[in-house]
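Structure record:
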Amino acid sequence: MNTVTFKNGELSVIKNFLNSIKVRGKASRGRSKLLKLLAKKEQELNDDLNDVRKPYLILGDNGEPLIEDNNVKFKDEEAREKATAEIIELFDEKAVIDITEYHDKLHALYDALNEYEYDLSGDDANAYDLLLDELEKIKEDK
């Protein structure tokens, strides 16, 4: 398997988890490579979010959304509801990440995570589970 797959809404949690763990050597390099790939997918998601929201927002003369009290301004409540529904759908879509060139490093990351000795809870525990499920698939396909 040359890909890992997460939901768009899981990308940030996984990225935060990877930034918080303590790993060394090849596993650390695997983490760094995966973080770069996740950041790229997150940027795509942010671009998609802007595309989804823009038709429902009030735009200024410069074509950018108007901001009021640190929030974008929607055309009306119906527009806010439609945008929210589309955003929920977008966050539920799959983010497929090609890891072909980083197989060995991600195997090392899997091994390090599989023997991770620190306690995890909340979002970290959830991200650990999601990440290990995907890394196990590439480990089994070796």
Notes: The chain has a mean pLDDT of 94. The two ends are 8 Å apart (CA to CA).
